[in-house]
Amino acid sequence: MSSSITDVAGISVGHFTDGRRPTGCTVVLVPRGAVAAVDVRGAAPGTRETDLLAPQNLVEHVHGVLLAGGSAFGLDAATGVMRWLEEQGAGLEVGPARIPIVPAAVLFDLPLGDQRIRPDAAAGYAACQAASRKAPGEGNVGAGAGAVIGKIFGFDRAMKGGIGSAAVAVDGVTVGAIIACNALGDVIDPDTAQVIAGARTADGRALLDTRRALLRGETPKPILAGSNTTIGVIATDAVLTKVQAGRLATQGHDGLARAINPAHTLSDGDTLFALATGDSGKSLGMMTLGAMAAEACALAVVRAIRAARGLSVGDLHLPAAGELS
What we know:
By secondary structure, the chain is α+β, with helices and mostly antiparallel strands. The protein has helices at residues 77-87, 121-129, 210-215, 242-259, 286-307; strands spanning 12-18, 23-40, 47-48, 61-68, 92-94, 97-99, 104-106, 148-149, 159-160, 162-170, 173-182, 186-189, 194-197, 229-236, 260-261, 271-276, 311-313, 316-318. It has one domain: 4-Layer Sandwich (L-amino peptidase D-ALA esterase/amidase).
């Protein structure tokens, strides 16, 4: 059985995929609450409730994290996650009310199909209803349904992105990640350093290798700011403080940089959340945990792309990894 973020005790994951066009959302649920932090490295993020995760701010625990398509419109899906959690009695107790804390990040998938169709509160609620401890679906589902990678030399030379998950366990502690990859750049297998998907050659029949193309002076096409993003959640059952969770999110970005090239560009909104449930009752120390987080993120990116399937929308065909000759 393959590893995933749901190997982490206390974590469940649910997808909603909209059949009317390729879009959707993914929720990571921790109704009992988890210490949380965030690290935003892209220059064009679309987020909600990230300021409260700063180490100097009061709130330490969240009850769910939403990843969604639909660009900024998709942030509305977090309202449905809040409603579902409220019905379960989960949330921060504030006087007479319990307020579920649900940070969110979105990716840009509006070019595929009718952009008026995007995740809303009902979609977020449906993702919660579908959540379980089972390994989540990968590829063209949830927040990865409309993900596209390798757009740096034009959308018509891009390939299908997706969502993937992986986990690493050391000495009774688990770190897992779920990543929706809608990157501007290529996806690289860190073990072989080979491009597995991304920008294609002008005839569309082979992989270009964006890094080498840029270094030999090929000019990228003008890129719409915010139209690319890799978003995800890292979770661990280690006992962490809020500051340590922030460092886990930071080191998770090392995994993105190993598996995506280029990463963290002006046109990406790369955002990683970190959750610590503490269910293992121990910590391995941040050196080991950081290495585990980077590894889980890199593996999850590769799995997202290997699980993705080719997609045709109108006259556009976005091939999947392995589809090219």
